[in-house]
Amino acid sequence: MSANVPAAVHDEHADATEPQAPITMFGPDFPFAYDDFLAHPAGIGSLPATEHGTEVAVVGGGLSGIITAYELMKMGLRPVVYEADEIGGRLRTATFEGCEGELTAEMGAMRFPPSSTAFQHYLDLVGLETKPFPNPLAADTPSTVVDLKGESHYARTVEDLPEVYHEVMRAWNSTLEEGADFTAMQSAIRERDVPRIREIWSQLVEKLDNQTFYGFLCDSAAFRSFRHREIFGQVGFGTGGWDTDFPNSILEILRVVYTGADDDHRGIVGGSQQLPRMLWEREPAKIVHWPHGTSLDSLHERGHRPAVTRLARTAGNRITVTDADGDIRTYRAAVFTAQSWMLLSKIDCDESLLPIDHWTAVERTHYMESSKLFVPVDRPFWLDAAVDRNGRETGRDTMSMTLTDRMTRGTYLLDNGPDEPAVICLSYTWCDDSLKWLPLDAGERMEVMLKSLGEIYPDVDIRSHIIGNPVTVSWENEPYFMGAFKANLPGHYRYQRRLFTHFMQDRLPSDKRGLYLAGDDVSWTAGWAEGAVQTALNAVWGVMHQFGGATDATNPGPGDVYDSIAPVELPED
Predict the structure, then answer these.
(1) Calpha distance 142→134 (Å, rounded)
(2) Residues 460, 468: contact at Cβ < 8 Å?
């Protein structure tokens, strides 16, 4: 799921003839090369034969939970997956009632950057294809309309926008460079220069942990103009204008722009939910203990276990899990990958499961709201040549990817080929903008959206092209999610550090071990599938280490090198 953060514009002074190393979500908080770790021929670890077949509970069947279970299975353990709903989590792909064909709508994660290199490992593993996602002003987006305060601007490239938008773009570049050493950090990440990454980041964490995104802009001379800040919030660059992130910690924003997480997005052909479902059914060629042909599906003869209703720490420092069927099972290790607030509300938990400061971190986790609504249409009519009232072609597309300050905020046009049925994401909104939709059902939402877009495109009859019922989601209203993803507020760095580093359990009291936290809301770059993958691999290392396993000396894991790359630790006093 993509955070609403403007992407930085590439360094205009860089030598275009000099090839650059690809960027990856390599740090800055924990600069471990998960992609190299996964690709190494030695594999990611092994266990003593005496532990083979041992059951490990995995709570949550989203991407993080399925990858955790998949990798533990390959090591010879028997993961027992608990899932309250369906495999996929926030990789949720919906179809349209009343619509023939295979049109899909991505209700959760829908666009993925090339810098998500560990995530890409699993896409390649199962053979899923991707295609460019039509973000505003992206190279593969035919056209973009920016509509603010009742005034619309049509653009095929950023050069087509009025000068004020270029002023805002330059202000953002200048602010990143002067306030966050942007070029130096991106260079260090590209080169995987851990000492340099840590040198830059440690100073910024101490300096900026108490700063909001908006405060960071206001502190910049380049953004002294309120008008520029307002336009930046409403339009921005990359995925759009993201004033909904203004109250969040600037450190969250820097993690995204440093690692190119908002650049060059791609969508998954056929839908993102295919990935966890395919991993669930996949029979790995390299597997220990289990016979060839084993899959997570085959290890769960009657399907995954239902929702967890209670978690307890019992005699012998075991984790005891009670599920919605009343079944009670006890494990030496369990990995919790569901939304962390579930531990506070829907699951009855013993306080002894986590250290008290970790409970505080869970309670303080801040989640972003998010809403979407999609409709299926007969064809990509937006590519038709627009005509004026005299029937003359204007040189514009009939409709464009649209950014606006109206209720819809972001409208995305999803093309499946000429004359093929297509999909429109009529609205994609966040936080307060998302809450405005909460009382309305799908039909009511669609009517408001069509009215709003009708004010931007008065001569376009969108309704006449709709061929099925709308589908919608408000993630804050989903009982097993209660929000789209976490986004740290100022002062939350220490809390996030506790949650992310929880897999290093040798540092915990002996009676607080055996339960591992994972999932994108535990990661440093939450809202991105890459964070779900990385924290899953951390948890896998933790379980492996607990059971006496180890990585190959030529391919150390995240826990093996922890002391050299551990996140900066801020004082508690």
Answers:
(1) 8
(2) no
Contact, 51 vs 75, CB < 8 A? no
Determine whether 159 is exposed, middle or buried from the number of CB atoms within 10 Å of its CB (0-12, 13-18, 19+). Answer: exposed
Our measurement of the distance from residue 425's CA atom to the centroid of its chain's CA atoms, rounded to an integer in Å, reads 18
Reduced to 3 states (helix: H, G, I; strand: E, B; else coil), residue 399 is: coil
User: What distance in Å separates the CA atoms of residue 450 and residue 452, rounded to the nearest whole number?
Assistant: 5
| Contact yes or no for 398/385 (Cβ under 8 A) | yes
How far apart (Å, rounded) are the C-alpha atoms in residues 296 and 76? 12
Both structure tokens of 402: 């649209």
DSSP 258-313: HTTTTSS-EEETT-TTHHHHHHHH---SS-SSSPTT--HHHHSTT-SB--EEEEEE
Phi-psi region of 314 (alpha: psi -120 to 50; beta: other; left: phi over 0): beta
pLDDT truncated to tens, each residue of the chain (573 aa)?
333 444 434 333 344 445 677 899 988 999 999 999 999 999 999 999 999 999 999 999 999 999 999 999 999 999 999 999 999 999 999 999 888 778 999 999 999 999 999 999 999 999 999 999 999 999 999 999 999 999 999 999 999 999 999 999 999 999 999 999 999 999 999 999 999 999 999 999 999 999 999 999 999 999 999 999 999 998 876 667 779 999 999 999 999 999 999 889 999 999 999 999 999 999 999 999 999 999 999 999 999 999 999 999 999 999 999 999 999 999 999 999 999 999 999 999 999 999 999 999 999 999 999 999 999 999 999 999 998 888 888 899 999 999 999 999 999 999 999 989 999 999 999 999 999 999 999 999 999 999 999 999 999 999 999 999 999 999 999 999 999 999 999 999 999 999 999 999 999 999 999 999 999 999 998 889 999 999 999 999 999 999 999 999 999 999 999 999 999 999 998
Starting from the edge strand earliest in sequence, which strands make up the sheet with 308-314, in order? 328-331, 318-323, 308-314, 348-349
Q: Which residues contact 215 (CB under 8 A, 6 or more apart)?
A: 250
Pairwise CA distance, residues 186 & 24, whole Å? 10
Cβ within 8 Å of residue 101, ≥6 positions away: 421
| Joined tokens for residue 491 | 């002062």
Tokens of 453: 């877009």
What are residue 307's DSSP bridge partners? none
Tokens coding 499: 């949650």
Q: Would you say 125 and 117 are in contact if contact means Cβ atoms under 8 Å apart? A: no
Beta strand residue intervals within 415-568, DSSP E: 422-430, 471-474, 485-486, 515-517
| Residue spans of alpha helices (H) in 394-441 | 431-435
User: Does residue 456 contact residue 145 with C-beta atoms inside 8 Å?
Assistant: yes
